[in-house]
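A favour, since you know our structure tokens better than I do. Just paste the record in under my message, thanks.
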Amino acid sequence: WALKHNFSFLLVVSFFTYLIFIAGIFISQKQYRDRYMPARCIRYDQALWTGVFTAFYASVILGFYYYLLFRYDSQSIYGMIENVMPLYEKNGISPSQIEEMKKALSPLSFGLSVIFTYTVMGVMISILTSLAIKRNPSSGNSGT
């Protein structure tokens, strides 16, 4: 029960983290367009790079947070692995491989992987949100 409860809680927290991440990218692109673009028109590439930079800076902050968390509370990282261990075993990963993964995982490697993962996710999100933010000078509407 505790494992299922913790995993459900982690899913809810992850959902809200992603929701805030997506909203932050969208809002930063919109703010950039509204403040710095004449006639509130922004090219697709400008909106895209605004989103990518926002995602990168957010991922650095989040990566640093996870680095500090696991640096000073090393049991947290092992607790996360323990929570998803049944999923690993269900997908055919042996307990010995899971133990090797625990040994190889350090606070620095976890922090760097968070930075990489959230930056890549930010690029994908920015590709989509840039389409919604972009406006043509002639029509003033969203679109291509």
Observations:
- The first helix runs from residue 2 to 36.
- The chain has one domain: 2-133.
- Helices lie at 2-36, 44-72, 74-90, 95-104, 107-133.
